[in-house]
Amino acid sequence: MPKQESPAEAWAEQWQQAQRRYWDAWMDMARETGQQHDAAQPWAQSLEHWWKTMSGTLPDSGQDLMHHLVGLGKAYFSLAEGLAKSDTPHGDDMMGAVSRWTEQMGETLRNMTSQLQQPFGKPPGAAATFWDLPLDTWQRTWSAAMPFPGDWMKALRPEDAGADLHAGLERFLSIPAVGYTREAQEQHQTLARLMLDYQQALREFQLGLSQSGLEAVEDFRRLLTERAASEDAEPLTSVRQIYDLWVDACENAYATYAQSDEYAERYGRMVNALMALKRQGARLVDEQLEAMNMPTRREVSTLQKRLHETRREQHALRAEIERLNERLAALAPDEPTVSRPARAATKRATRKPTPKAAPKSAAKTASKTAPKKPARPGRRQ
Amino acid sequence: MSPIDLRPDQVLEELSGFGRKLSHGMQNLMTVGDIPTGVTPKEIIHQEDKMVLYRFQPPASKVQNPVPVLIVYALVNRPYMTDLQENRSTVRGLLDAGLDVYLIDWGYPDRADRYLTLDDYINGYLDRAVDVIRKRHRLQAINVLGICQGGTFSLCYAAMHPDKVANLVTMVTPVDFHTPDNLLSKWVRHIDADLVVDTLGNVPGEMLNWTFLTLKPWRLMGQKYLDMVEMLDDPKQIDNFLRMEKWIFDSPDQAGEAYRQFIKDFYQQNRLIEGGLKIGEREVDLRNVSMPVLNIYATEDHLVPPAASRALKGRLGTQDYTEQAFKGGHIGIYVSGRAQKEVPPAIGRWIDERTYPID
């Protein structure tokens, strides 16, 4: 009886057949026309399609990893497809393909830099996505730290909303606050101003990264040139080796930039601007909670602080009582006989009452001394 | 000579191979269950709030050193890194070296812990854990092994309570926070720690994760996962990879006040070596560290550069100071195969020599 294929195996097989068909068709076409094709990375797209179909079948523990791998696989495939669109199948022409890819990457980063230098230009995605890795992760990390729930900041991204929103915000901020709602209006104006500050700080940080990306492109070219000039260096014989060289170039350029004062200053401004924005958001939320007669964050923090201080006092008292108990035990006439060296090492452990009993009695006594917290006999802390 | 020797059909083969590994790997991932960590049997000795003091079960066949060792791990990340899996366990190595091993697990602070200070951690939890062990073993002083930030804490503790520490071992421990190659330190110079803590309360573990990943973003967020595809055929390697991933991203939030002081006093003002550091009401002076000290650092450490650890030399009150280099990185020092052979036995020998002095 033939072995039954699992759904995953069946899909894996289908996907590989699809890849093979795509490649055959692409090679045939290239042979017939001798032209390059601009299909938008169908290989990478097929990977995405496969993942969308299959992802639901994975347990949670594997989902995140696989999602990450597929994302990287797409970037990797994009690089490979760019390289594979070489008309003739060897050596210098593949080098030409790498050069074109490098030039394209450089062009994208130059555009991105130029756009970021404009007040509200839209940074290009595509190849820049690779270089955006730290920033993208930053935004994912902080999506939960925004002043309000949901992807609130995304809707306010100037590059998404265009100059109209910015102009609207500027107008809003320029309205003088008057009358009964003056204070509330000022609070919201402050929030809007802080939001713009954060956007500006974020763009500066991104600009630094994209400029550093251009350094990486130059570094990549230099590494290839050095390799070409070197008699000892082995040629690169796989896409993966090319990718690794590109990663080396990126890390080198980034490491240089990340060591600079400029990076530290921009990073600091970005973090501080986000914190200021979030703090203002929290203030507004607190105002609303107060209006609804609900406990505010501020109030809860005050309670936490007072409780913490009480607990610290309790610990200090307990330690003090323990010290006093030890001294009392040392003075007691019925203290068991212990040899002098052993006594020095163990006097705390061998005192009476037993070590376990001591904290209990200490807790009881401490609770009498600390009236703010009722005693809970027998329980430590 | 062209630096690239690659034909389109080779590209095809590579892409096909990648796709094949990915799809087969997915089948292996389907069988992945829970990833166990912290493999050596242990018992709870003491608990206080979220802090738990464990004692690891020693092998019956080993003659134990009578003075136990307490592992003090960092607040950042989880201490099961020291006991990750059967064949990658510093704890197991220390037990095999004849040591009686205790470990502090700081737990996951939540908003109720927002006001915990370094004083609470070091002169509170840590000191009380040391007292518990001292009482159990009827000893005046025990051995302390501090790891990373836990090493910094241990140094502070030993300086404030030298009578309770018999021998001190520090592993990949930052001492000088302003060495030129310390990227983390450079990055936090312009961070307004007060604003961060006053805004967030506790500092999210995700923020620290992001910071660590951006030390080498393309290697840690990209290249590493392509390497992973190469391993997807092997369920055992998938397990190992996922276990490490679990640890890397298992980052507790940081109690706000402790974070505030650590960033300001250590990272920004470098007070541990510049002077003027106070934990609670006590001044921390490294010259009070009078017990023998073994300082182990990793030569390829990108989180705590070797110079940041080696700065300890000449700053202590003890003449018995030993430095040991491990060829590897910040994580490799616990989990690499070489680390298992080199690090715990060396610690065991060093402590033994100071427990049974040769006349």
Protein model, in words:
The complex is a heterodimer of chains A (381) and B (359). Chain A has 381 residues and is mainly α. Among the domains of chain A are: 113-118 and 129-291, no CATH class; 304-323 and 353-381, no CATH class. Chain A contains 15 helices and no strands. Chain A is extended. The relative contact order of chain A is 0.05. Residues 33-40, 123-129, 149-161 and 337-381 of chain A have low confidence and may be disordered. With 359 residues, chain B is of the alpha/beta class. In chain B, helix 2 crosses helix 14 (337-355) and helix 3 (118-137) crosses helix 4. Chain B has an eight-stranded mixed sheet, with helices on both faces. A two-stranded antiparallel ribbon of chain B has the order 4-5. A two-stranded antiparallel sheet of chain B has the order 9-10. The longest helix of chain B is centred in the first third of the chain and has 23 residues, at 8-30. Chain B has 14 helices and twelve strands. Chains A and B meet through helix 1, helix 2, helix 3, helix 4 and helix 6 of A and helix 1, helix 3, helix 5, helix 6 and helix 7 of B.
What is the averaged pLDDT score of chain A? 69
The overall strand count of chain B is 12
- Largest sheet data of chain A: none
Q: Over the alpha carbons, how many angstroms does the gyration radius of chain B reach?
A: 22 Å
**CATH homologous superfamily title of chain B:** Alpha/Beta hydrolase fold, catalytic domain
**Poorly predicted sequence stretches spanning 5 or more consecutive residues of chain A:** 33-40, 123-129, 149-161, 337-381
The end-to-end distance of chain A, rounded to whole angstroms, is 67 Å
Question: Biggest sheet of chain B, strands in spatial order?
Answer: 1-2-6-3-7-8-11-12
**Class of chain B, according to the CATH hierarchy?**
Alpha Beta
What would the principal axes of the Cα set say about the shape of chain A? Answer: extended
